[in-house]
Amino acid sequence: MVLIHTTNHTYSHPFPTVTLAFFLRYCSPQLNPFASHVLSTDTIASHIDPSTGRLHTTRIHLKKSRLPPAVMKLLPATLTGGTSDKASYILETSTVDMREGWMATESRNLNFVGVLSVVERQLYAVPKTGLAAAAAADNNNNTTTDVETKVVYRSRLGERIRDRLGQAQAQAEAAVSEGGGGFFARLGARGIQRSIETLASTKTQDQLGKSREGMRMILERLRQTGVMGVLELRKMANQRGMEAAAH
């Protein structure tokens, strides 16, 4: 079973600023308190394609797990390690085309994929009407940026259980009707799968709202202090963090 959640949003900021905010959104929890769940961020690769002028970047984020406690409780300890305090590696790829006015991103979890796969794709773009006007005027003074976010959830745990049980699933369901059966028999592969996907979907919708608020905070700081101001604030926040860790 696969669940797909799609949202659309418009930022009241020009495309270059929104693009910059995307790359700065996890730079410091002092700048973006909605990113406190992000433990670290590293850039793996970044290059400009000379034939297209597009910027291709690959980053990896370490975040507190998106799997909510309710999902963890559904799973046996053999899959969770006996604790719900988990961190998840997120692989993020992005392509930016400043000339055409769009940025495509994709984020996916690298661990827990045996339980739940979450793939988030976003397309940031200058509004088509604004892009046409900008091209005619030979500038990039559009004041808004559209973004479409599509999140795909897929619970592979339920699929594996269903494949392994096969005919035994029908027997387990029959046992349930008679009051018997174990954990998976009582809940059923489809039930586990649906529960994991639905709970994770609800959690992610909440996170998408927080993500937009975090982007707004970075955008406002860029508007008020400029790029150098934000970078200086990040430097100061990192220094305070290092001093606190030393003590």
UniProtKB/TrEMBL annotation:
GO terms for cellular component: mitochondrial intermembrane space. PROSITE patterns: PRELI_MSF1. It comes from Chaetomidium leptoderma. Residues 2-227 form the PRELI/MSF1 domain. InterPro entries: PRELI/MSF1_dom, Slowmo/Ups. Coiled coil: none annotated. It holds the Pfam family PRELI. It comes from the Eukaryota. This is Protein UPS1, mitochondrial.
